[in-house]
Structures are given as structure tokens and as C-alpha cells.
Design brief:
This protein is of the alpha+beta class. Helices cover about 30% and strands about 10% of the residues.
Length: about 190
């Protein structure tokens, strides 16, 4: 599946020494990525990523523990490749979930420019990122689980009230357009 931005929402599988390795699962198990769950995933896929996240978080591998508060962007940080900045290899700072980081960075830039006057949580509420609690989604499925929104899991002081694998996001589907600019019903 591709989302509304044309990004692949799926697994990357490679063959190493004759064995198939799911790169997505490997990254989460190593603590190099946090799981992000979507409604297009099967229950088995969700449970597999939850198990991988549990294993790496219990061992505090890589990115674990994740940041528990949205906080603010540190604008004094400048990216320097590890060759020119050996300290980058030893970065031990907290990690904000990428989905929250992207929304926070957009909000901060727009807030500083005066384009947004609300606080971050109110901004999230206005953009209504649909999701479900993972346990509810796994029990009832997409048609019967209680629809929720990302802002409901962010406290007024920015506290994050969910684990990375605790919510399942509803994808915004993409639309493939033909050369005439009209949607294409089937393209395979």
C-alpha cells in the first residue's frame, strides 16, 4: 500500500546467507526503530512488531526508552556527519516518535511564523490523525473498534500517554492520477 504522500507502507525483506530477513522487524528488534502500526497491517504483523519492540525495550537497546513528553525542538542542534563529529556516535538523548516529531516540527515552524496561534495539542486536535488503541483494534477490528485521535493521547503538559505499539494509525489512502489528471481506478 502507498499512503497519500506516495510512501510505501509495507515490509522490506532481503535475503542474507539464503535466509529471508524482514528489515522492519530486525530494525525494531535491534532498537534502531520504533514500531508504527497501521490499520492495513494484519493482526499477526502487529503482534510480531509488538514482540520485537518488547524485546528491545526491555533490554533498553538503541532508542529505548522513548521520550515520554513531547517537549520542544532543540534548535541549537546542527547535523554533522559522524566523520566530522565523533560525538554523534555516542548520542544518548531521548527519541521522540517520528510521527510526533514531524507534527511538532511543523507546528513549531508555523507557530514561530505566526501562522498557528494555538498550543501543540490543540493543533493536533485540528488535524485529527485517526487511530485506535491497539488492544481494541486487535479485539474488534477496524469496523468495530472505537475510533480515536492522536491528540487524545497527549496531555495538556505534553505528556505522551501511549507506547509506540499502543496505537494503530488509520492511513490516509493515496489516489493515483492518470495523465489526464483523473483518478485511475486500477493500475495493476
Amino acid at each position: 500500500m502507498f499512503d497519500m504522500y506516495g510512501r510505501l507502507v509495507g515490509d522490506v525483506v532481503v535475503r542474507i546467507a539464503g535466509l529471508k530477513v524482514n528489515v522492519n522487524h530486525w530494525l525494531v528488534r535491534q532498537g534502531l526503530a520504533a514500531p508504527t502500526l497501521y490499520t492495513s497491517m494484519s493482526h499477526r504483523e502487529i503482534r510480531t512488531l509488538q514482540a520485537a519492540a518488547r524485546a528491545s525495550s526491555q533490554g533498553h537497546a538503541g532508542i529505548w526508552p522513548l521520550q515520554g513528553n513531547v517537549g520542544q525542538l532543540d534548535r541549537s542542534l546542527v547535523y554533522r556527519p559522524p566523520k566530522t563529529n565523533p560525538m554523534a556516535r555516542n548520542d544518548q538523548g531521548p527519541v521522540l516518535l517520528p510521527k510526533l516529531y514531524r507534527r511538532l516540527s511543523t507546528w513549531e515552524v508555523n507557530h514561530d511564523a505566526g501562522l498557528v496561534t494555538t498550543d501543540f495539542r490543540t493543533h493536533l486536535a485540528a488535524h485529527r490523525d485517526g487511530c485506535f488503541e491497539t488492544s481494541d483494534f486487535l479485539q474488534k477490528g477496524v469496523t468495530r473498534a472505537t475510533p480515536r485521535f492522536l491528540h487524545e493521547f497527549i496531555g495538556s503538559s505534553g505528556d505522551i500517554a501511549f507506547q509506540a505499539d499502543g496505537i494503530v494509525f488509520r492511513e490516509k489512502p493515496s489516489t493515483l492520477l492518470g495523465p489526464d489528471g483523473k483518478p485511475v481506478a486500477a493500475w495493476w
